[in-house]
Design brief:
Elements lengths: L21 E7 L3 E8 L4 E8 L7 H15 L8 E8 L8 H13 L6 E4 L1 H9 L5 E6 L3 E7 L2 E7 L11 H18 L5 H10 L13 H15 L9 H9 L3 H19 L10 E4 L8 H13 L4 E3 L3 H13 L6 H8 L1
Parallel strand pairs: 1-4, 4-5, 6-9, 9-10
Antiparallel strand pairs: 1-2, 2-3, 6-7, 7-8
InterPro entries: ATPase_BadF, ATPase_NBD, Euk-type_GlcNAc_Kinase
Pfam families: BcrAD_BadFG
Protein name: ATPase
Length: 345
C-alpha cells in the first residue's frame, strides 16, 4: 500500500508565523509624527513617520500626517491584530474638541484600525522612554518646557507648561525671546552688540547693512526691523534662536552665558515645585534644551545631582516609550524591564 508524502516546499518559500497580537505606540510632536507597531515581546514589526502631528497648531494637517504615518507603519500588517494603542501627543488637550477629535478618528479608522487608541501627554511618554520604573518625575525642555510627577506610569501633577505666552520658562522659546530682548536693550542704550547680538541680528535680518548704525537714526531703523520681523512670524519660530544662544555661549559670549545659566535656574525651580530633595525616584530629562549636549542640560545635571536624590536619566525615543506603555495596556505583565530594554535599545 503506497503512502502519499507531501511535496517538498520550494527553497525560497516562507513559512509564516501564526498571527500574534500587536500593539501600537505613537508620538505626535510639533515637527514629526512617528508610529511603531510591535509584538507582545517588544519586537518592532512596523514603523511610520510623517510631518508634525500636534493637534493644537494645525489640526487638519496634523490629522492627515497622523493618517500617513499609520498607513506606512501598517504596511504588510493586518490592522485587526493591533489590540492596544498608546499615543503621546504634545498639545493633546485639543483632542477634547469634537471637531479635532473627529479628524483624528477618521485617520485612525481610515487606516483599518479598530482598537481604541489612548491619547496621553508627552510627559508620560518621555518618562516611560527613560525608565521602566513606575514612579518618578520628568522635565521636558525643548521648544517649550514642562515638568510632571508620574505615579504608576500615570501623570498626577504638573508644573509649568503654560505655553509661550504665559510661561515655558527655560525653554528654547524662552532662550530665543530673551536673546532678542537683549538686542533691543542694546539698541535702546545705543550700545555695541556682542557676538550673541550680532548673531541674532544676522538670523533675523540677514540682508541688513551694518553701516546703518552710523546714521543718526540707525539704531531705530534696525530696531524697528527686528520688531517687525519677529511679530510677522509664528511665535514658535522664536525657539530657532536657541541654537544661536548656544553657539554664542560656546564662544564665551557673556550675555549668552547669562541666559543659559538663567534658563537652567528656571527649570530647576520648575522641578522643585513638584519634587522634594529627599525623593529617591528617577528624574528623567527630555528635550533638546535639557539634552546632554546642551549647555543648559549640562548645568541641569550638575545641579540636580547636587540637589536631588535618585537617578538623573535622559529620555530616549518617545515613540518607543509609548509602545512599551501600550504593551502594559494590553497586559500589565508585558511591561517588563526586558521589553523596555528591547524597545529602547
Amino acid at each position: 500500500m503506497s503512502v502519499e508524502r507531501p511535496l517538498p516546499e520550494p527553497a525560497d518559500s516562507v513559512v509564516l508565523a501564526p498571527a500574534t497580537t500587536l500593539v501600537l505606540g505613537g508620538d505626535l510632536g510639533g515637527t514629526s509624527t512617528r508610529i511603531v507597531i510591535a509584538d507582545s515581546e517588544g519586537n518592532v514589526v512596523g514603523r511610520g513617520a510623517a510631518a508634525g502631528g500636534n493637534p493644537t497648531s494645525h489640526p487638519t494637517t496634523a490629522a492627515a500626517n497622523f493618517g500617513q504615518a499609520l498607513h506606512t507603519a501598517l504596511t504588510g500588517v493586518d490592522p485587526a491584530r493591533v489590540e492596544a494603542a498608546v499615543i503621546g501627543a504634545a498639545g493633546g488637550s485639543a483632542l477634547a474638541i469634537p471637531e479635532v477629535k473627529a479628524q483624528f478618528d477618521a485617520a485612525w479608522f481610515g487606516a483599518g484600525l479598530s482598537a481604541e487608541a489612548e491619547f496621553i501627554g508627552d510627559l508620560e511618554v518621555a518618562f516611560a522612554s527613560g525608565t521602566a520604573e513606575p514612579d518618578g518625575h520628568v522635565l521636558i525642555s525643548g521648544t517649550g518646557s514642562n515638568a510632571g510627577w508620574v505615579q504608576d506610569h500615570r501623570l498626577v501633577r504638573t508644573a509649568g507648561g503654560h505655553g509661550w505666552l504665559l510661561g515655558d520658562e527655560g525653554s528654547g522659546f524662552w532662550l530665543g525671546r530673551e536673546a532678542v530682548r537683549s538686542v533691543l536693550l542694546a539698541f535702546d542704550l545705543e550700545q555695541p552688540l556682542g557676538l550673541l547680538g550680532e548673531s541674532v541680528l544676522t538670523a533675523l535680518l540677514p540682508d541688513h547693512d551694518p553701516g546703518v548704525f552710523a546714521q543718526r537714526d540707525g539704531f531705530d531703523i534696525v530696531r524697528n526691523g527686528v520688531i517687525r520681523v519677529v511679530n510677522n512670524r509664528p511665535p514658535v519660530l522664536m525657539a530657532e534662536l536657541a541654537r544661536t544662544v548656544v553657539a554664542a555661549y560656546e564662544h564665551g559670549d557673556q550675555t549668552a552665558q547669562a541666559l543659559v545659566k538663567r534658563a537652567a535656574e528656571l527649570l530647576i525651580e520648575t522641578v522643585g515645585r513638584i519634587r522634594t530633595t529627599k525623593d529617591t525616584t528617577p528624574l528623567i530629562l527630555a528635550g533638546s534644551v535639557a539634552g546632554e549636549q546642551s549647555p543648559v542640560g549640562r548645568l541641569l545635571r550638575v545641579a540636580f545631582h547636587e540637589e536631588f536624590a535618585g537617578e538623573i536619566l535622559t529620555a530616549r525615543d518617545g515613540v518607543s516609550g509609548a509602545t512599551w506603555l501600550a504593551l502594559g495596556a494590553l497586559d500589565p505583565a508585558l511591561a517588563t524591564e526586558a521589553n523596555h530594554t528591547r524597545l529602547l535599545s
